[in-house]
What does this fold into?
Amino acid sequence: MKPAATALRCAAAALAIAFAAPLAAEEAAAPAATASAATYPETPEGAKAWLAMVEADLAAFATEFAHVSWINATYITHDTDTLAARYGAELTVKQVGYAGEAARYARVAGLDAETRRKLDMLRNSISLPAPSRAGAAQELNDIATRLGSAYGRGKGTLNGQPINGSDIEAEMGNLERTPDELKEMWVSWHDNVGAPMRKDYTRMTALANEGAKELGFADFGAMWRSGYDMPPEQFAAETERMWQEVKPLYIALHTYVRRKLNEKYGDAVQPRTGPIRADLLGNMWAQEWGNIYPLVAPQGAGDIGYDLTDLIVKKNLDALGMVKVGEQFFSSLGFAPLPATFYERSQFLKPADREVVCHASAWNIDNVDDLRIKMCIKPNADDFITIHHELGHNYYQRAYNQKDYLYLTGANDGFHEAIGDMIALSITPEYLVQIDMLAAEDVPSADKDIGLLLRQAMDKVAFLPFGLLLDRYRWGLYDGSIPEAATNTAWNDLRREYQGVVPPAPRSAEGFDAGAKYHIPGNVSYTRYFLARLLQFQFYKAACDTAGWEGPLHRCSFYGNKEVGAKLNAMLEMGASKPWPDALEAFTGERQMSGKAMAEYFAPLKKWLDEQNKGEKAGW
It folds into this structure.
């Protein structure tokens, strides 16, 4: 889950779209620019002074907004919703105005590297930029509101009866559903939800492109790719390079899963060769395949010798105790204890007297040390792992709390999630032995590893091509390389190219299947998730190498290693104050993001998959 304090600055998509009025781009921007021109001249010194003013204003506002947002998330009422909406609208006005002025200052000659970097951060702070001409912001707001509402109201059908979004997602992972039922749900969801959005989405793309160009970018896709401390074209090439590093692992998994589905359903439903039918993979978008693990699990893989939920119960750990165990992990690495206010102000349990947002999130209310997590913890394995993940966000937030306001976030948008995921990877049997939750004699033997690795790969590896292609598709729409007439065919062509999946039925060129994925109408960039999936393994391997771990990578525990903690903190405390290669190098010694560590982690599985796939035709 994205850390909430960062979300206040970066979630302008939702806020800018839901609440931005024409005031943001039309009435406020011009007077503000005039005032700034008088007080902060268009010189290198003027740009610096202007940035100092902006950061002070945003820092003060962010703290107040964070308090309002926390109350809204932990005490949902009409009034707290109203307050959160009002503050969201005010944030939008600030961000739109400041982004426009930043574009103006960015044209000043002689700017130093730090000033230019901060100006770029402000220009990139709007996830959906509206053109400044009269009426454009209102039109964009109206379109985005319609798209969001359309997705929220969306329904498919199951056996001819309407079924809503959350229920249809769950049913797609129900192994008792027949291929015909899965096909009906897939087709109806894409037809009912995606297709009607096409005209609005095309118009939204045109408006966002126009707004991005006003901010100095080639197009909206280039604007998104400009947030990675390198030219947009280089970043696109880097993500493709990383994909090629893990593609052989994905193809091996795809080949194995396809055979298992063929054995389950027969040639008429899932052929032994070629792409996989998208609705058979346990997920509406075939992005994670964990729901069908029972269909592909090696014999005996389900018994790993212990159950983490049982260990939590036997240890008599309540919600507070589970959090204390998570904190102990970081303390063992040399990190200072969490402040007392963390335990006083966090939400660990669902209150009985009111509605709250239970979805786990990590907060730093004042961007200093008012750290909190918000969860509705249950004594089970999933929440135990989530606690470790969320605390990863909290320790990252505290590590960079001395930096300038614009640097109070991860080195790039993949880093924050990757830190939490790296910590979650560390919950190995060896770690459980070290914290006295598992007896040494109960550590699973190596013959259980394949099942454990396959279960992880069904989500972490299977996700990678989808995580990459979603934005690649949008980049093509934004730069015109995908013409409007090819809107739907290009989407399904990319899914076949990268994922090796195809729709369960012919698709109309007039449709809009991409719109059936929330992040498309919601305008949420997706490459960050691709990066986080790879970075978590790169970070994990770096920690294990520093700790001197000599066994299989997936068994590594670096609990208690102060040297790992010191190196990790050196990266965390940078925040976004340096280009991300500098932060990456501080911990890993490398300046390139890479998929090689993931490939090493899953190497035993890859060897096993290759053996299972002998005689099968790989790829599609």
Remarks:
- The longest helix spans residues 232-265.
